[in-house]
Design a protein that fits this description.
Layout: H1 9-12, H2 28-41, H3 53-71, H4 83-86, H5 91-96, H6 100-109
């Protein structure tokens, strides 16, 4: 172990400065207990928070506007068909363009895809 003279000057005087901890005054903990007991006897402060009335008003107006807009008729009745859809031919018009022979040929080729009872023209239980 090196002697005290061999240590740097900072380390030589380290013990003389103390350990760096400072003890509180002798009556510190007694005063602390008295302060805590005095504060415990005081009534607690009650603070109530209310929502800002401006925010409540704005939210009510926004909800009212939304429900009004949803309740209004926007002209999208079921009978109203947009122009693009109304120009398309109906299924009857499309089937009229296909010959019965082409339909029978298709059904003959794809017979396993159709239910047999769909071919009957009369009731089965007659």
């Amino acid at each position: 172990m090196p002697s005290k003279q061999e240590l740097p000057e900072l380390l030589q005087n380290l013990r003389e400065k103390g350990d760096g901890f400072i003890s509180p005054e002798s009556d510190y903990f007694a005063r602390l207990a008295e302060k805590a007991a005095a504060r415990a006897k005081e009534p607690a402060k009650i603070t109530r928070t209310r929502p800002n009335r401006w925010w409540l008003s704005a939210a009510a107006i926004a909800l009212l506007a939304l429900f009004t807009w949803l309740a209004l008729d926007h002209g999208d009745a079921p009978g109203d068909v947009p122009e693009l859809v109304s120009d398309q031919p109906t299924s009857e018009e499309l089937l009229a363009e296909i010959s019965p022979e082409a339909i029978e040929a298709y059904i003959g080729e794809e017979l396993d895809q159709f239910a047999a009872e769909l071919y009957y023209t009369e009731e089965i239980n007659d």
